[in-house]
Amino acid sequence: MARLERGPGRLVAFSDGVFAIAVTLLVLEIQPPEDFTHLARGLGELWPSYLGYALSFLLIGQVWVNHHVMFDHIRHVDREVLFLNTVLLMVIAFLPFSTSLLAGALRADAGLRTAVVVYGSTLWTAALLFNIIWAHLRRAGLLEASLDVRAVRSIGHRFALALLWIGSGIVVGAFVPVAGVVIIAAFLPAYYLPIRGEYGSDPG
Amino acid sequence: MARLERGPGRLVAFSDGVFAIAVTLLVLEIQPPEDFTHLARGLGELWPSYLGYALSFLLIGQVWVNHHVMFDHIRHVDREVLFLNTVLLMVIAFLPFSTSLLAGALRADAGLRTAVVVYGSTLWTAALLFNIIWAHLRRAGLLEASLDVRAVRSIGHRFALALLWIGSGIVVGAFVPVAGVVIIAAFLPAYYLPIRGEYGSDPG
Amino acid sequence: MARLERGPGRLVAFSDGVFAIAVTLLVLEIQPPEDFTHLARGLGELWPSYLGYALSFLLIGQVWVNHHVMFDHIRHVDREVLFLNTVLLMVIAFLPFSTSLLAGALRADAGLRTAVVVYGSTLWTAALLFNIIWAHLRRAGLLEASLDVRAVRSIGHRFALALLWIGSGIVVGAFVPVAGVVIIAAFLPAYYLPIRGEYGSDPG
Amino acid sequence: MARLERGPGRLVAFSDGVFAIAVTLLVLEIQPPEDFTHLARGLGELWPSYLGYALSFLLIGQVWVNHHVMFDHIRHVDREVLFLNTVLLMVIAFLPFSTSLLAGALRADAGLRTAVVVYGSTLWTAALLFNIIWAHLRRAGLLEASLDVRAVRSIGHRFALALLWIGSGIVVGAFVPVAGVVIIAAFLPAYYLPIRGEYGSDPG
Q: What is the pTM of this model?
């Protein structure tokens, strides 16, 4: 066990596996139309499934990037991190279900309010776990000594921002479902763009 | 083949893959409700599926941790280990099926006794294989020389404890199914907490 | 984050995971016949599924090879590459759906025109992303200095060729669906064969 | 591309991914009984699915071991190896389908002859590809120089034996299906046991 606490290597590899599989399973939620004689029309009616597929794929891709941002700065992991990370993966691996709810509600034009709240809450719980893990890493002194204080704080801010942003999406989505989806989707470009002053310069 | 017997690296990587996939496939057992007009209620009725999902995800996560505890202390693997590990993975990869039985029985309010026994037996067989592999590693002298005798014994005790604990869950579950599930679930916190004196102190 | 930009190692590992899963999920699209009393005949009627399976498996295998050709020559990745690669994987992971459309249309003998265009367009979009990523790598100076100019250009030509070839398959397929499939399939041998003068000689 | 030909590292990692996924997907072919009131009986009737699951899991596990035996002795891979390995993976990833045919035919008590021939042929094709790849590696001089001639020959014999053994299973299975399955299953213990004089002694 001592050795298990040394480096995050295997935890990262296992997590990468779950991310890669969760993202690839999303396509199984898209069912081809039954009627092939009017295939083009049938495919057009599946637009909510494509939307859900693209949104969830890009969001999980983003979570994957942030998972690395977090675990790149860890010296070793303890049992709490192992447990919290498993719960985080459990939430991520649940997204294909939330996605099929969202797509199904859009297609049925019913239950959209519930579906958006469930979808947002899945993401929000993932964001919450990021915040809990980061706080634990700081408190338990598991971060690399070389990581400067400003970076620790700015990464923490970023994780807190996710919580607020997606939380707003859920609240708005409970009243105007489509607006909630738009807010959550708007999180993607905001997150891929670097935040000014947050990270070091481009390596050479 | 000589080389295959040198290190457990590839065996661990292959096993990690199976663990990651088994855990992520669990979500496919949760079917969205057909009726989206009463989505919230329909989702509420799926609680046995969520329970099964969470329970199995955390249990497989724990098995994964223990798999590393075991294979971190191996110098090399022989054909017996290769074979026994394949059987272990076969049992783990069967858990999504056992989980959907458990969730289905809770939802149908029928066959719960059988479902709990099958679910528990799947886990118990995995625990049995851990004990067999560990005994073989000790007997065949495949463990690292640096591993001290106390650690070897305490890891062995831990694996034996799993056998007893889950065995009790099955026996109780055969009479009072819900109590059996509770016993098996109670194994999770008991296992994530470090056992006093078993492992070295926190590094660094 | 600085560290994230250093090497493409993790991006490649994550991508390999998605490729491996996408390719293996293809088999789930093939449904066994319902009637086992005339199994041989039932299996014979599934030929479009086998065709789709083999074609998509080999094409994804080829995309995987080319993904490595591209990322073997990268010094580090930036946020744009991370984002573009995620979009590329999203397109690849969509192929099992496009494949089941193609097989379904061949089996139903209906909607084949649409299915071939959708199938080809999925591949074409993947090829487009290869071209965009390669152009970005060149422009942003992310390629290894040791890579000579001729190689950069010939790899670029290869990616551009894919765009033209598959584009032709789509255009032809919109009129004569089967001919479109043949053109896309013909891309496989053309691509596995080394192009004269493009790469260095066989090592050692 | 030059670099791609240097080591088999990535090819092995990608292949391991496909093996791990194919093996884990096998469980999706086992459908829980619809009727939970007589669950024990319903589960009993699923025995062909368990048999198919265990047989295919252990066989793929064995193929995985042999894949490593083969690629551990390779200095570098060329385009032919890349292509042949992709075809090999395509055949392996097809096994979940063949397995569900075998289980379905046993359950329906119909079409068993066809199912056994298809199942055996899938395995036989995999064995054939092993032989082709090994012959190519020898002919093209891609094997490690340190590998002695006796080992090269004995590995080759092993691959040829697989071809004969499974071939016999198919021929017998075409007349007495159950006997064919028994022959194929008997291949497992024969293969896990070391062959006298074939490999070096146990490392110390």
A: 0.92
